[in-house]
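Sample 3 of the quickstart, ligand heme C:
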Amino acid sequence: MIKKIAIYTLLISFFVSCNSKNEKKEILKTKKKEELVMYKPSEMTELMREMFLFQENSKKQIEKGELPLDFPKRFKKIHTAELSDQFEHDESFQNFTKLYLQNIENLGNSTKQNAKENFNIAIRSCIACHQTTCTGPIKRIKKLLIK
Ligand code: HEC
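Result:
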Protein backbone atom coordinates (compact mmCIF):
# COMPACT_ATOMS: atom_id res chain seq x y z
CA MET A 1 0.00 0.00 0.00
CA ILE A 2 2.67 2.49 1.07
CA LYS A 3 4.73 1.42 -1.92
CA LYS A 4 1.80 2.12 -4.21
CA ILE A 5 1.33 5.59 -2.81
CA ALA A 6 5.02 6.29 -3.23
CA ILE A 7 4.88 5.25 -6.87
CA TYR A 8 1.90 7.47 -7.59
CA THR A 9 3.55 10.41 -5.91
CA LEU A 10 6.57 9.88 -8.09
CA LEU A 11 4.44 9.61 -11.20
CA ILE A 12 2.69 12.85 -10.42
CA SER A 13 5.86 14.66 -9.47
CA PHE A 14 7.51 14.10 -12.78
CA PHE A 15 5.11 15.34 -15.32
CA VAL A 16 6.79 16.69 -18.46
CA SER A 17 4.93 17.75 -21.52
CA CYS A 18 6.13 16.60 -24.93
CA ASN A 19 6.70 20.03 -26.33
CA SER A 20 8.25 21.76 -23.36
CA LYS A 21 11.68 23.32 -23.80
CA ASN A 22 11.52 24.82 -20.38
CA GLU A 23 10.01 22.24 -18.07
CA LYS A 24 9.35 24.57 -15.17
CA LYS A 25 7.56 27.09 -17.29
CA GLU A 26 5.53 24.33 -18.87
CA ILE A 27 4.47 22.96 -15.51
CA LEU A 28 3.34 26.41 -14.44
CA LYS A 29 1.39 26.80 -17.65
CA THR A 30 -0.17 23.39 -17.21
CA LYS A 31 -1.21 24.22 -13.69
CA LYS A 32 -3.04 27.24 -14.99
CA LYS A 33 -4.69 25.20 -17.72
CA GLU A 34 -5.73 22.58 -15.20
CA GLU A 35 -7.99 25.10 -13.57
CA LEU A 36 -9.96 25.16 -16.81
CA VAL A 37 -9.76 21.55 -18.03
CA MET A 38 -8.93 18.46 -16.06
CA TYR A 39 -5.76 17.11 -17.59
CA LYS A 40 -6.06 13.48 -18.54
CA PRO A 41 -2.82 11.87 -19.72
CA SER A 42 -3.13 9.44 -22.63
CA GLU A 43 -2.65 5.71 -22.16
CA MET A 44 0.73 6.06 -23.87
CA THR A 45 1.81 8.85 -21.53
CA GLU A 46 0.99 6.75 -18.49
CA LEU A 47 2.81 3.78 -19.93
CA MET A 48 5.85 5.91 -20.75
CA ARG A 49 6.01 7.37 -17.26
CA GLU A 50 5.96 3.90 -15.75
CA MET A 51 8.52 2.69 -18.24
CA PHE A 52 10.80 5.59 -17.35
CA LEU A 53 10.70 4.64 -13.65
CA PHE A 54 11.24 1.00 -14.53
CA GLN A 55 14.35 1.83 -16.56
CA GLU A 56 15.66 3.97 -13.73
CA ASN A 57 15.49 0.94 -11.42
CA SER A 58 16.97 -1.34 -14.03
CA LYS A 59 19.87 1.08 -14.45
CA LYS A 60 20.58 0.87 -10.71
CA GLN A 61 20.79 -2.91 -10.97
CA ILE A 62 23.26 -2.75 -13.84
CA GLU A 63 25.36 -0.15 -12.05
CA LYS A 64 25.62 -2.59 -9.15
CA GLY A 65 26.96 -5.18 -11.60
CA GLU A 66 23.68 -7.13 -11.72
CA LEU A 67 21.60 -8.12 -14.74
CA PRO A 68 18.85 -5.72 -15.90
CA LEU A 69 15.34 -6.20 -14.45
CA ASP A 70 12.90 -8.34 -16.46
CA PHE A 71 11.04 -6.11 -18.88
CA PRO A 72 7.32 -6.21 -17.96
CA LYS A 73 5.21 -7.50 -20.86
CA ARG A 74 2.62 -4.78 -20.47
CA PHE A 75 5.10 -2.19 -21.80
CA LYS A 76 4.96 -3.96 -25.17
CA LYS A 77 1.60 -2.30 -25.51
CA ILE A 78 3.34 0.84 -26.76
CA HIS A 79 2.57 -0.53 -30.25
CA THR A 80 -1.11 0.12 -29.81
CA ALA A 81 -1.55 2.34 -26.76
CA GLU A 82 -3.82 5.27 -27.38
CA LEU A 83 -1.86 8.48 -28.09
CA SER A 84 -2.75 12.10 -27.48
CA ASP A 85 -4.26 13.85 -30.46
CA GLN A 86 -1.09 15.34 -31.90
CA PHE A 87 0.52 11.89 -32.47
CA GLU A 88 -0.23 9.05 -34.84
CA HIS A 89 0.58 5.37 -35.17
CA ASP A 90 2.20 5.99 -38.54
CA GLU A 91 4.83 3.86 -40.19
CA SER A 92 7.75 5.72 -38.67
CA PHE A 93 6.24 5.32 -35.22
CA GLN A 94 5.78 1.58 -35.74
CA ASN A 95 9.37 1.22 -36.92
CA PHE A 96 10.73 3.01 -33.87
CA THR A 97 8.58 0.81 -31.63
CA LYS A 98 9.93 -2.31 -33.29
CA LEU A 99 13.51 -1.12 -32.98
CA TYR A 100 13.01 -0.26 -29.33
CA LEU A 101 11.40 -3.60 -28.46
CA GLN A 102 14.13 -5.43 -30.36
CA ASN A 103 16.78 -3.63 -28.32
CA ILE A 104 14.87 -4.44 -25.14
CA GLU A 105 14.91 -8.09 -26.12
CA ASN A 106 18.68 -7.98 -26.67
CA LEU A 107 19.03 -6.30 -23.30
CA GLY A 108 17.07 -9.15 -21.73
CA ASN A 109 19.57 -11.62 -23.17
CA SER A 110 22.56 -9.70 -21.82
CA THR A 111 25.34 -11.06 -19.72
CA LYS A 112 26.79 -9.03 -16.85
CA GLN A 113 29.60 -8.10 -19.24
CA ASN A 114 27.51 -6.46 -21.95
CA ALA A 115 24.44 -5.35 -19.93
CA LYS A 116 25.61 -1.76 -19.68
CA GLU A 117 26.25 -1.46 -23.40
CA ASN A 118 22.90 -3.05 -24.30
CA PHE A 119 21.10 -0.85 -21.81
CA ASN A 120 22.50 2.29 -23.41
CA ILE A 121 21.54 1.03 -26.88
CA ALA A 122 17.96 0.56 -25.67
CA ILE A 123 17.85 4.03 -24.11
CA ARG A 124 19.22 5.55 -27.32
CA SER A 125 16.27 4.04 -29.15
CA CYS A 126 13.91 5.77 -26.71
CA ILE A 127 15.68 8.99 -27.63
CA ALA A 128 15.57 8.25 -31.38
CA CYS A 129 11.80 7.90 -31.33
CA HIS A 130 11.40 10.94 -29.15
CA GLN A 131 13.38 13.08 -31.57
CA THR A 132 10.70 12.40 -34.18
CA THR A 133 7.67 12.68 -31.89
CA CYS A 134 7.82 14.00 -28.39
CA THR A 135 10.94 16.10 -27.76
CA GLY A 136 10.11 17.47 -24.28
CA PRO A 137 11.42 14.57 -22.16
CA ILE A 138 14.66 13.95 -24.14
CA LYS A 139 16.89 15.72 -21.65
CA ARG A 140 15.46 13.59 -18.89
CA ILE A 141 15.75 10.36 -20.87
CA LYS A 142 19.42 11.10 -21.61
CA LYS A 143 20.07 11.03 -17.87
CA LEU A 144 19.19 7.34 -17.94
CA LEU A 145 22.31 6.58 -20.00
CA ILE A 146 24.97 4.80 -17.94
CA LYS A 147 28.35 6.54 -18.04
C1 HEC B 1 8.08 4.52 -30.63
C2 HEC B 1 8.31 5.80 -30.05
C3 HEC B 1 8.72 5.95 -28.61
C4 HEC B 1 9.62 5.18 -27.90
C5 HEC B 1 10.45 4.01 -28.37
C6 HEC B 1 9.64 5.75 -26.57
N1 HEC B 1 8.77 6.80 -26.47
FE1 HEC B 1 8.37 7.89 -24.82
N2 HEC B 1 6.85 8.86 -25.78
C7 HEC B 1 6.53 8.69 -27.13
C8 HEC B 1 5.34 9.48 -27.43
C9 HEC B 1 4.64 9.57 -28.78
C10 HEC B 1 4.96 10.14 -26.24
C11 HEC B 1 3.77 11.05 -26.03
C12 HEC B 1 2.55 10.22 -25.75
C13 HEC B 1 1.28 10.99 -25.79
O1 HEC B 1 1.30 12.22 -25.62
O2 HEC B 1 0.25 10.34 -26.01
C14 HEC B 1 5.95 9.74 -25.23
C15 HEC B 1 5.99 10.21 -23.91
C16 HEC B 1 7.02 9.98 -23.02
C17 HEC B 1 7.21 10.64 -21.75
C18 HEC B 1 6.41 11.83 -21.28
C19 HEC B 1 5.33 11.51 -20.37
C20 HEC B 1 4.76 12.80 -19.83
O3 HEC B 1 4.91 12.99 -18.63
O4 HEC B 1 4.20 13.62 -20.60
C21 HEC B 1 8.34 10.12 -21.16
C22 HEC B 1 8.95 10.49 -19.81
C23 HEC B 1 8.84 9.10 -22.04
N3 HEC B 1 8.03 9.05 -23.17
C24 HEC B 1 9.96 8.33 -21.79
C25 HEC B 1 10.40 7.29 -22.61
C26 HEC B 1 11.45 6.35 -22.25
C27 HEC B 1 12.27 6.40 -20.97
C28 HEC B 1 11.56 5.48 -23.29
C29 HEC B 1 12.47 4.29 -23.41
C30 HEC B 1 12.61 3.44 -22.23
C31 HEC B 1 10.61 5.89 -24.31
N4 HEC B 1 9.92 6.98 -23.85
C32 HEC B 1 10.45 5.26 -25.54
C33 HEC B 1 7.21 7.90 -28.02
C34 HEC B 1 8.17 6.95 -27.70
